[in-house]
Design a protein that fits this description.
Layout (H helix, E strand, L loop, with lengths): L51 E4 L5 E4 L5 E5 L14 E5 L10 E9 L16 E9 L3 E8 L6 E8 L6 E7 L13 E11 L4 E2 L11 E2 L12 E11 L11 H9 L2 E7 L8 E4 L3 E3 L2 E7 L8 E6 L4 E6 L5 E11 L6 E8 L7 E6 L4 E6 L3
Length: 377
């Protein structure tokens, strides 16, 4: 079998291939490969923004260097997933777009370096890995994708064939580990896995070998965004050590959800008036003559997250000491983090100035108050 091509004789599951033995805990380095968790969008359609990773279901981003060319949605089109799966991620082309040489349209996931350190990429002991997945498209032909390092100077383009339109097919690609280049092994990006939905000639290379040239797809691939209304559905994505695709590594839902929360979570800070819940805090040092800080210990995540407050109907908290009337507390939300990244403090900063060392009851005016915490790679 040539590297970078479909490994049809080693597929697993209902396609009738040979079932290989499991090789230990956390075989699959992809998180949410079955597309089950969708904290951000709750199944709603997403249009990737121009020049950015726009997150869809958890850990999976759509990247586009031109806006409004495709949409991404959990269970788009409401087709029946392959046996053993309940969900999939679907991309739908929004027009018949003519690809330019510099274009890049992707579905992608970054795997954290802690989770790929044992690959030993960038060394003489680099391990072979195998990518496997289920895919369905309204188009047929050769499709492409790639793996690249976080620095964007080492790429492995791969290709696979979709033989029948609107039919789930299982694919497997074996990739020889890269013996050169820089591959991060801590909480930075260990590697990016890219599925191309359309890539221009400047970012295509021949499938099947490592290159320093930009490669987000493979030469000769089909470009989904070139056909109006074309669909691309994918699930059961797995990246594992070894040259054989084993059965999909199903993890308990709670485990998968916790893995996703390392990178993103919606944290309930205060239940609103309708919930009837109150929080008791002790004021921290005053932030200024007319404002104060209220600190809440946040969860442990990959790194210090970006925090965005979302209130049901108001960005106003109310604070009162016991036995006194409440005072409105218009706030901004920031995060701080200790040096060893074991957790963060969510800091509400605003007025009025609270008294140091005094306990206060704090509640949210209107709906529940959440913080969207984003620590994606």
């Amino acid at each position: 079998m040539a590297y970078g091509t479909i490994n049809t004789d080693k597929l697993v599951g209902s396609s009738g291939g040979t079932l290989s033995p499991d090789s230990g805990v956390f075989r699959n380095r992809i998180i949410n490969g079955a597309m089950v968790i969708d904290q951000r969008n709750a199944g709603a359609s997403v249009t990737p923004a121009n020049g950015a990773n726009t997150y869809t279901v958890d850990r999976w981003a759509g990247y586009a260097n031109q806006s409004s060319k495709y949409t991404v949605q959990q269970n788009a089109g409401s087709v029946t997933p392959p046996a053993g799966f309940r969900n999939y991620l679907g991309a739908t082309s929004s027009s018949a777009y003519s690809i330019t040489s510099s274009d890049i349209f992707l579905l992608r996931q970054s795997i954290e370096g802690f989770n790929t350190a044992d690959f030993n990429w960038g060394t003489a002991n680099a391990s072979t890995v195998t990518l496997s997945f289920w895919v369905r498209s309204s188009l047929t032909g050769t499709f492409g994708g790639s793996i690249n390092n976080d620095s964007g100077n080492r790429f492995y383009p791969f290709s696979y064939t979709i033989s029948a339109a609107n039919t789930w097919e299982q694919k497997s690609v074996t990739i020889a580990g890269d013996t050169t280049g820089t591959w991060y092994t801590t909480n930075s990006g260990g590697l990016w896995l890219n599925f191309s939905l359309g890539t221009g000639s400047s970012n295509l290379q021949t499938a099947g070998s490592w290159t320093a040239s930009s490669a987000y797809g493979a030469t000769g691939q089909t470009n989904l965004v070139g056909t109006n209304g074309a669909t691309f559905y994918i699930t059961g994505v797995q990246v594992e050590k070894g040259s054989t695709a084993t059965s999909f590594d199903y993890r308990p839902y709670g485990t998968e959800f916790a893995l996703c929360q390392r990178y993103y979570q919606n944290l309930l800070l205060f239940a609103g008036n309708s919930g009837g819940a109150l929080s008791v805090i002790r004021a921290s040092s005053s932030a200024g003559a007319s404002e104060s800080n209220i600190n809440i210990q946040g969860p442990t995540m990959r790194t210090n997250p970006t925090a965005t407050a979302v209130a049901g109907s108001s960005n106003i908290l109310y604070a009162s000491s016991f036995g006194s009337a409440g005072s409105s507390f218009t706030y901004t939300l920031n995060t701080t983090v200790n040096s060893n990244v074991t957790g963060q403090v969510l800091r509400f900063r605003g007025g009025p100035a609270l008294t140091d060392g005094t306990a206060y009851v704090v509640w949210c005016n209107g709906g529940d108050l959440y913080a969207k915490l984003d620590a994606e790679l």
